[in-house]
Specification:
The complex is a heterodimer.
Chain A (H helix, E strand, L loop, with lengths): L3 E4 L2 E4 L5 E7 L6 E7 L5 E8 L5 E2 L8 E7 L2 E6 L8 E9 L3 E4 L3 E5 L1
Parallel strand pairs in A: 2-11
Antiparallel strand pairs in A: 1-3, 3-8, 4-5, 4-9, 5-6, 7-8, 9-10, 9-11
Chain B lengths: L2 E3 L4 E5 L4 E3 L2 E3 L6 E7 L6 E7 L6 E3 L2 E6 L4 E6 L8 E8 L7 E2 L3 E6 L1
Parallel strand pairs in B: 2-12
Antiparallel strand pairs in B: 1-4, 3-9, 5-6, 5-10, 7-8, 8-9, 10-11, 10-12
Classes of the chains: A mainly beta, B mainly beta.
Chain lengths: ~110, ~110
């Protein structure tokens, strides 16, 4: 079946630094990728939708300059958390949409900003 | 507006008990899609089922079954003879007709004790 590889699984960074999270669709082409954020014991909140080759569409309240999304190819989307702060600590999950496989989720990245 | 409500925040059962997780949705679309996902402690989302609005047949897959009732806008999930490995957070999600976005409920944390 379809697999989305998300890296890293976890990352600890210092406040003020930037962190990049990658999601790759391994055996299919993902025309659309979604990025979610999940706080402990809470639901998945959609941050943005990205389509290959175009700018991401951000949900209301999500700072596009802080959460940079790049979807340069049909198999790779990246989320960069810029100038990270402790309040950005969260679990980030990507999801790829494909006509054949539907939604395939990455395994998530646990970001801790210290 | 689209909304998914999972009123049960946490459920605890003893192994071999049956348990039903409730999901109520709101949408104005006549065509829509409903999903259930399992999120074990490791964090990845495991796809369980997708149901479109035209298919009201109940589904059974092993110990899992789903009851879709359009009249009450509900899509409930039952685990029969629960096992410890069923312990996880379960999310119900909705996708409307003219959108690719998945709207997640707040999730139900299921704990199955031996």
């Amino acid at each position: 079946g379809a697999v989305v590889s998300q890296h890293p699984s976890w990352v600890i960074c210092k406040s003020g630094t930037s962190v990049k999270i990658e999601c790759r669709s391994l055996d299919f082409q993902a025309t659309t990728m979604f990025w979610y954020r999940q706080f402990p014991k809470q639901s998945l909140m959609l941050m943005a939708t990205s389509n290959e080759g175009s700018k991401a569409t951000y949900e209301q309240g999500v700072e596009k300059d802080k959460f940079l999304i790049n979807h340069a190819s049909l198999t790779l989307s990246t989320l960069t958390v810029t100038s990270a702060h402790p309040e950005d600590s969260s679990f980030y999950i990507c999801s790829a949409l494909d006509a054949n496989y539907g939604y395939t989720f990455g395994s998530g990245t646990r970001l801790t900003v210290v | 507006a689209q909304k998914v409500t999972q009123a049960q925040t946490e459920i605890s059962v003893v192994e071999k008990e049956d348990v039903t997780l409730d999901c109520v949705y709101e949408t104005r679309d006549t065509t829509y899609y409903l999903f259930w996902y399992k999120q074990p402690p490791s964090g990845e989302l495991v796809f369980l089922i997708r149901r479109n609005s035209f298919d009201e047949q109940n589904e059974i897959s092993g110990r899992y079954s789903w009851n879709f009732q359009k009249s009450t806008s509900s899509f409930n999930f039952t685990i029969t003879a629960s096992q410890v490995v069923d312990s996880a957070v379960y999310f119900c999600a909705l996708r409307g007709y003219n959108t690719d976005k998945l709207i997640f409920g707040t999730g139900t944390r299921l704990q199955v004790f031996p």
